[in-house]
């Protein structure tokens, strides 16, 4: 049965890095004789330019009908003056909500050859290997903002709302991940101030009884932000609400040395997922061959693992990326600790990853 991957290149360097990931996936599918097709649709600024809205219904329908979605990036200065309801970012929020992708998985893992690129001392970075599970479709980002008009134009209100169901489903996803890792879960909230956080903590404690093998710690978000810098190696799985997860995962991304290396997955209870690099659209380097495709290629590995149940193929990608970095190949954003460092462009880096996969699969006919 044919599988379908919908590709949403988006804006900025999005088309460049998704093209790289599709090349890698296509190579694997042909090598292992998998029947998978790619369908491309618009989102973000590209959709605004073509159709006047950031998320056309055709895009939503195609994503709903596919087995997985690969996304590049959205946004850029070109659309900064758009009114709030037609900004590119609304396309990203909209597709997450439309597909019910409530759990965002963002790993932070140290690559030995990139440790010198971290702003932290290597002693702190070497043991880093944790995952942030961020609730993605609720909270402050999906509240109802007040409008600045009339007598209230100098005052604004944003609402933060969560139901027990919304909290429970993402917390369960985090416990399931912790069970397969080092069995440590850190739940992050602001329960000393926010009522929503107090309910969050109650739900975590309730769900914890179903996972007796997982050690649970509660932490306040401000304390966690500090601990990510002074002792990041202590964490295994971190679960938190939408805005806290957004901020903490961006902080975590610089610990390992490059935003250009970090993949992400947005999941729901079934196999459908949306996979994208953590980095943005980087409009300043568009078309220059400077974009690092590795985060998107690693996101494609997530796609294989979580949506297509192709664990072997996912591992081949991850090993290939590690091997390429060990050999010293790097794009301009990476500082590689190798005597044989070789600067390459986006296409050349992709070529190296495919070659490294080919070496591993030489026995496959």
TrEMBL record:
Pfam families: Iso_dh. Substrate binds at residues 96, 106, 134, 222. Pathway: Amino-acid biosynthesis; L-leucine biosynthesis; L-leucine from 3-methyl-2-oxobutanoate: step 3/4. One of its GO terms (biological process) is L-leucine biosynthetic process. Homodimer. NAD(+) binds at residues 76-89, 280-292. NCBIfam families: leuB. This is 3-isopropylmalate dehydrogenase. It catalyses: (2R,3S)-3-isopropylmalate + NAD(+) = 4-methyl-2-oxopentanoate + CO2 + NADH. The gene is leuB. GO terms for cellular component: cytosol. Keywords: Amino-acid biosynthesis, Branched-chain amino acid biosynthesis, Cytoplasm, Leucine biosynthesis, Magnesium, Manganese, Metal-binding, NAD, Oxidoreductase. Mg(2+) binds at residues 222, 246, 250. It is an enzyme of class 1 (oxidoreductase). Its EC number is 1.1.1.85. Belongs to the isocitrate and isopropylmalate dehydrogenases family. LeuB type 1 subfamily. The keyword NAD applies.
């Amino acid at each position: 049965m044919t599988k379908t991957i919908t590709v949403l290149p988006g804006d900025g360097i999005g088309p460049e890095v998704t093209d790289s990931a599709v090349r890698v996936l296509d190579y694997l599918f042909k090598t292992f004789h998998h029947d998978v097709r790619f369908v491309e649709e618009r989102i973000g600024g590209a959709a605004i330019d073509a159709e006047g809205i950031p998320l056309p219904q055709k895009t939503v329908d195609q994503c709903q009908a596919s087995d997985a979605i690969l996304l590049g990036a959205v946004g850029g200065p070109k659309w900064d003056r758009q009114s709030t309801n037609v900004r590119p970012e609304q396309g990203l929020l909209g597709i997450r909500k439309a597909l019910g992708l409530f759990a965002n998985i963002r790993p932070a893992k140290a690559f030995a050859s990139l440790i010198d690129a971290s702003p932290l001392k290597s002693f702190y970075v070497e043991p880093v290997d944790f995952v942030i599970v961020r609730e993605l479709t609720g909270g402050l980002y999906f509240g109802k903002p007040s409008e600045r008009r009339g007598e209230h134009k100098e005052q604004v209100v944003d609402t933060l709302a969560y139901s027990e169901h919304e909290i429970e489903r993402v917390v369960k996803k985090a416990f399931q991940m912790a069970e397969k890792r080092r069995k440590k879960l850190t739940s992050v909230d602001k329960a000393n101030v926010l009522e929503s956080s107090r309910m969050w903590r109650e739900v975590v404690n309730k769900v914890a009884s179903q996972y007796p093998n997982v050690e649970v710690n509660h932490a306040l978000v401000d304390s966690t932000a500090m601990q990510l810098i002074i002792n990041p190696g202590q964490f295994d799985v971190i679960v938190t609400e939408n805005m806290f997860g957004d901020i903490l995962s961006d902080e975590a991304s610089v610990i390992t040395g490059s935003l250009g290396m970090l993949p992400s997955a947005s999941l729901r209870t079934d196999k459908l997922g949306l996979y994208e690099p953590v980095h943005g659209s980087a409009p300043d380097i568009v078309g220059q061959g400077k974009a690092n495709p590795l985060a998107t290629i690693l996101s494609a590995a997530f796609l294989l693992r979580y949506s297509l149940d192709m664990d072997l193929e996912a591992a081949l990608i991850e090993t290939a990326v590690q091997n390429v970095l060990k050999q010293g190949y790097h794009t301009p954003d990476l500082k590689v600790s190798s005597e044989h460092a070789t600067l390459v462009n986006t296409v050349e880096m992709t070529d190296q990853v495919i070659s490294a996969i080919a070496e591993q699969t030489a026995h496959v006919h």
